[in-house]
């Protein structure tokens, strides 16, 4: 019951006996990920060996959460995460740096990635219609975001790539294990935005790696219109509704989570293959338009 891994060119994973070996050609990436294990101890596997380009941990006997999730298991995960998503008290200087990191991570990176998408796929900001709905240009939607509000995040312990393909559940041990944690948050190894983890989880509930791997989607961009279709697992749709309610009942800002989710799709569109890239762009823009139109 292996996860659906959407491969990246500079990374590799090998399963050798009872060991998982993760490789990257980026030495800083590996070093930072290894360093963060102490911050995430008890939630991620223990790394027992590492070199400049790789690290090893023992295979975890558990199921990939996206394959077996039920609403009770999701409730269990949310309860478990209360002890993981621990807020950190920052002084004024640290808080200013944190907000600046959020701004860089959300605004600057999004603008760079959207331009990279246009360059990679020879497109421009001319998608006037998405699935038949007329909407403004993407640059207008991005300009309208209150970036100061969005970058006023929740400083704390973070995973950074928190979605069901990176979460294992052992029914026998009644234990969750988190995999493939992000190496940093805009360069910071210990303080990230917990809202980003919320958005990462939301993005994986809406777009599931298994659905993409099985080509259960379509996307076409022609004459200023994007048309896309995406199959969704009912269990994940139910988890999304549950998660929306959990965010609100826990006192968090649902609009912030969903706008960040839209930005995640726009960010990763440039990094994936065609036509999945078009789906991500179209979905991201449509979601940003819809969520931005809602009242705070």
UniProtKB/TrEMBL annotation:
Which residues does UniProt assign to the signal peptide?
A: none
Sorted alphabetically, the keyword list is:
Membrane, Transmembrane, Transmembrane helix
Q: Which organism is it from?
A: marine metagenome
Matches recorded under Pfam families = APH
Domain annotation Aminoglycoside phosphotransferase: ranges: 135-218
What is the recorded name of this protein?
A: Aminoglycoside phosphotransferase domain-containing protein
**Segments passing through the bilayer:** 262-284
Q: Which InterPro entries match?
A: Aminoglycoside_PTrfase, Kinase-like_dom_sf
């Amino acid at each position: 019951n292996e996860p659906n891994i959407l491969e990246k060119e500079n990374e590799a994973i090998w399963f050798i006996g009872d060991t998982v070996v993760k490789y990257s050609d980026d030495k800083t990436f590996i070093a930072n990920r290894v360093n963060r294990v102490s911050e995430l101890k008890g939630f991620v596997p223990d790394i027992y060996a590492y070199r400049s380009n790789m690290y090893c941990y023992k295979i975890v006997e558990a199921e990939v959460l996206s394959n077996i999730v039920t609403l009770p298991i999701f409730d269990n995960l949310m309860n478990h995460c209360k002890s993981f998503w621990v807020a950190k008290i920052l002084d004024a200087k640290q808080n200013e740096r944190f907000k600046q990191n959020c701004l860089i991570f959300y605004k600057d990176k999004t603008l760079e990635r959207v331009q990279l998408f246009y360059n990679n796929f020879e497109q421009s900001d001319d998608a006037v219609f998405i699935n038949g709905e007329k909407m403004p240009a993407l640059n207008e939607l991005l300009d309208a975001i209150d970036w100061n509000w969005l970058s006023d995040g929740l400083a704390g312990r973070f995973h950074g790539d928190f979605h069901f393909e990176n979460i294992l559940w052992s029914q026998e041990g009644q234990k969750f294990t988190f995999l493939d944690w992000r190496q940093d948050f805009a360069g910071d190894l210990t303080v990230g935005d917990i809202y980003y983890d919320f958005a990462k989880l939301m993005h994986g509930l809406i777009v599931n790696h298994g659905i993409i791997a099985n080509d259960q989607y379509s996307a076409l961009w022609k004459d200023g219109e994007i048309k896309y279709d995406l199959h969704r697992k009912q269990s994940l749709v139910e988890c999304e509704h549950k998660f929306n309610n959990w965010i609100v009942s826990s006192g968090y800002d649902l609009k912030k989570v969903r706008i960040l989710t839209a930005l995640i799709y726009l960010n990763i569109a440039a990094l994936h293959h065609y036509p999945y890239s078009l789906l991500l762009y179209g979905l991201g823009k449509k979601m940003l338009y819809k969520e931005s139109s809602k009242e705070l």
